[in-house]
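[job 4471] stage=fold_predict status=RUNNING
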Amino acid sequence: MAVTTVVATEGCDRHEPITERYDVTEHSHAEHRWPVDEDPSQAWHAAPTMLDRFYPMDDIVAVIDNRATGERAVQALKDAGVSDGDVDLVDGAWFAQAARSAVGQRGMVQRLTHLLPTDETILARTYVEEAEREHDIIVVHAPSHDDVERARAVLAAHGAREMHHYGRHTIRDL
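[job 4471] inference complete, writing C-alpha cells
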C-alpha cells in the first residue's frame, strides 16, 4: 500500500473529499502506521504507541471478518475520499505475530504494567484475539469528527466490529 501523509489545510471545506481537503506534508498516519511490509517480528519497533501502549492516534481500528470483505471496505473508503495512505488492511496473522513479538521484547516491569486492565490493553488484547481467529484488522486515519463519522458508516456497512477511534485524549467506541 502507498504511504501518503496528510494534514488539514487552512479554511478547508469539511464536505469535500478527504483527498481534496488535505495537503501532503510530513505529519500524519504515516508517522505511526505499522510497517506491514516488514517482518512482523521486527514491527514492534515502529508500533503506534503512547506511554508504551498500543495507541494509533487519530485512527479508527476495527475487525473485519475476512480479506475479501476488507478489500471491499477499503475500496468503499477510497470511494468516500480516504486516500490510499490513510487506510491499512492488516492481515490477522501478521498483526498477531507482531503483537506477540512486541510483548516478547518488553522488560519485566513493562510486562507487569501491561497486566493492568486499562482501556488500551483490553482493546489491544481484543484485536490480537480476533487476529488469531484469522480476522483482519482495518485501520483508517480519521483526524476530524466528520472523517470519523464517514469512515464509521462505511466500515459498519461492511460488517466491521470492535470499531474504536483513538483520539487525542480518549478512545471512543463506534
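[job 4471] summary: The mean pLDDT is 75.
[job 4471] exit 0
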